[in-house]
Amino acid sequence: MAKTIISTDKAPQAIGTYSQAVKVGSTVYLSGQIPLIPETMEMVEGDIKDQIHRVFNNLQAVAHAAGGELSDIVKLNIFLTDLSNFPHVNEVMAEYFQQPYPARAAIGISALPKDADVEMDAVMEIDG
Q1: What DSSP string describes 83-128?
Q2: Which helix (H) or strand (E) holds 53?
Q3: CATH placement of domain 3-125
Q4: What does pTM read for this prediction?
Q5: In the chain, which residues have pLDDT < 50?
Q6: What is the DSSP letter of 25?
Q7: What residues contact 120, with CB distance under 8 A and at least 6 apart?
Q8: Which among 69, 62, 58 is positioned nearest to 29, based on CA atoms?
Protein backbone atom coordinates (compact mmCIF):
# COMPACT_ATOMS: atom_id res chain seq x y z
CA MET A 1 0.00 0.00 0.00
CA ALA A 2 1.23 3.51 -0.81
CA LYS A 3 2.48 5.84 1.91
CA THR A 4 1.49 9.50 1.96
CA ILE A 5 3.68 11.90 3.91
CA ILE A 6 1.74 14.47 5.93
CA SER A 7 3.30 17.87 6.55
CA THR A 8 2.09 21.22 7.87
CA ASP A 9 3.68 24.48 8.93
CA LYS A 10 1.06 24.71 11.69
CA ALA A 11 3.08 22.17 13.72
CA PRO A 12 6.81 22.12 14.48
CA GLN A 13 8.99 20.92 11.65
CA ALA A 14 10.82 17.65 12.21
CA ILE A 15 14.01 18.05 14.24
CA GLY A 16 15.36 14.74 12.96
CA THR A 17 14.99 12.16 10.24
CA TYR A 18 11.23 11.65 10.42
CA SER A 19 7.97 12.93 8.96
CA GLN A 20 5.30 14.72 10.98
CA ALA A 21 2.93 11.91 10.01
CA VAL A 22 2.59 9.08 7.52
CA LYS A 23 -0.73 7.88 6.12
CA VAL A 24 -1.14 4.30 4.90
CA GLY A 25 -4.67 3.46 3.78
CA SER A 26 -7.00 4.95 6.38
CA THR A 27 -4.41 4.85 9.18
CA VAL A 28 -2.30 7.88 10.04
CA TYR A 29 0.79 7.52 12.24
CA LEU A 30 1.54 10.83 13.97
CA SER A 31 5.13 11.31 15.09
CA GLY A 32 5.94 12.39 18.59
CA GLN A 33 5.26 16.01 19.41
CA ILE A 34 7.03 17.96 22.12
CA PRO A 35 5.97 21.45 23.28
CA LEU A 36 7.67 23.36 20.47
CA ILE A 37 6.05 26.52 19.12
CA PRO A 38 5.76 25.98 15.34
CA GLU A 39 6.54 29.58 14.37
CA THR A 40 9.73 29.87 16.41
CA MET A 41 10.75 26.23 17.01
CA GLU A 42 11.36 27.25 20.63
CA MET A 43 9.99 25.40 23.63
CA VAL A 44 6.81 26.88 25.10
CA GLU A 45 7.35 28.72 28.36
CA GLY A 46 5.24 27.97 31.38
CA ASP A 47 4.29 25.05 33.53
CA ILE A 48 3.57 21.43 32.61
CA LYS A 49 -0.04 22.26 31.69
CA ASP A 50 1.19 24.83 29.16
CA GLN A 51 3.49 22.18 27.71
CA ILE A 52 0.69 19.61 27.50
CA HIS A 53 -1.61 22.12 25.76
CA ARG A 54 1.13 22.90 23.22
CA VAL A 55 1.63 19.19 22.52
CA PHE A 56 -2.10 18.63 21.95
CA ASN A 57 -2.24 21.72 19.70
CA ASN A 58 0.68 20.37 17.69
CA LEU A 59 -0.95 16.95 17.37
CA GLN A 60 -4.20 18.63 16.35
CA ALA A 61 -2.44 20.59 13.59
CA VAL A 62 -0.94 17.42 12.15
CA ALA A 63 -4.28 15.59 12.46
CA HIS A 64 -5.96 18.41 10.52
CA ALA A 65 -3.26 18.30 7.84
CA ALA A 66 -4.04 14.60 7.42
CA GLY A 67 -7.77 15.31 7.07
CA GLY A 68 -8.72 14.24 10.58
CA GLU A 69 -9.44 15.45 14.07
CA LEU A 70 -8.11 14.56 17.50
CA SER A 71 -11.32 12.56 17.95
CA ASP A 72 -10.05 10.24 15.18
CA ILE A 73 -7.09 9.16 17.33
CA VAL A 74 -7.43 5.51 18.34
CA LYS A 75 -4.12 5.17 20.24
CA LEU A 76 -2.23 7.84 22.16
CA ASN A 77 1.19 7.33 23.73
CA ILE A 78 2.29 9.79 26.40
CA PHE A 79 5.90 10.06 27.53
CA LEU A 80 6.61 11.94 30.77
CA THR A 81 9.89 12.65 32.49
CA ASP A 82 7.95 12.85 35.77
CA LEU A 83 4.94 10.57 36.19
CA SER A 84 3.64 12.77 39.01
CA ASN A 85 2.48 15.05 36.15
CA PHE A 86 0.05 12.39 34.93
CA PRO A 87 -2.98 13.99 36.64
CA HIS A 88 -2.24 17.18 34.67
CA VAL A 89 -2.30 15.15 31.45
CA ASN A 90 -5.75 13.82 32.36
CA GLU A 91 -7.00 17.30 33.21
CA VAL A 92 -5.78 18.92 29.99
CA MET A 93 -6.71 15.92 27.84
CA ALA A 94 -10.34 16.30 28.96
CA GLU A 95 -10.35 19.69 27.20
CA TYR A 96 -9.42 18.07 23.87
CA PHE A 97 -11.18 14.68 23.96
CA GLN A 98 -14.62 13.36 24.83
CA GLN A 99 -15.74 9.79 25.40
CA PRO A 100 -15.09 7.36 23.93
CA TYR A 101 -11.45 8.11 24.64
CA PRO A 102 -8.61 6.58 22.62
CA ALA A 103 -6.58 3.68 23.90
CA ARG A 104 -3.61 5.14 25.75
CA ALA A 105 -0.29 4.43 27.39
CA ALA A 106 1.68 6.64 29.78
CA ILE A 107 5.37 5.93 30.00
CA GLY A 108 7.85 7.41 32.44
CA ILE A 109 11.24 8.07 30.86
CA SER A 110 14.46 9.76 31.91
CA ALA A 111 14.77 12.37 29.15
CA LEU A 112 13.15 13.78 26.00
CA PRO A 113 14.46 15.88 23.09
CA LYS A 114 15.19 19.52 23.94
CA ASP A 115 14.70 18.69 27.64
CA ALA A 116 10.91 18.57 27.17
CA ASP A 117 8.85 17.22 30.06
CA VAL A 118 6.22 15.63 27.81
CA GLU A 119 5.97 14.06 24.36
CA MET A 120 3.03 12.36 22.68
CA ASP A 121 2.56 10.35 19.51
CA ALA A 122 -0.62 8.83 18.13
CA VAL A 123 -2.31 6.55 15.64
CA MET A 124 -5.40 7.91 13.90
CA GLU A 125 -8.06 6.22 11.74
CA ILE A 126 -9.76 8.39 9.12
CA ASP A 127 -11.97 7.84 6.08
CA GLY A 128 -10.34 7.95 2.70
Answers
A1: GGGHHHHHHHHHHH--SSPPEEEEEE-S--GGG-SEEEEEEEE---
A2: helix 48-65
A3: 3.30.1330.40
A4: 0.96
A5: none
A6: T
A7: 32, 33, 55, 56, 59, 76, 77, 78, 79
A8: 62
In Å, what is the CA distance from 111 to each residue of 64, 79, 94, 96, 116?
Answer: 29, 9, 25, 25, 8
Give yes or no for a contact between 112 and 79, defined as CB atoms under 8 angstroms apart: yes
For residues 104 and 60, the answer to whether their CB atoms sit within 8 Å is: no
Helix axis angle, 48-65 to 86-96, nearest 10°: 40
pLDDT of amino acid 128 = 59
- What residues contact 40, with CB distance under 8 A and at least 6 apart? none
Question: What kind and span of H or E run contains 4?
Answer: strand 3-6
Which residues, at least 6 apart from 73, have a Cβ–Cβ distance to it below 8 Å?
Answer: 30, 59, 63, 97, 102, 122, 123, 124
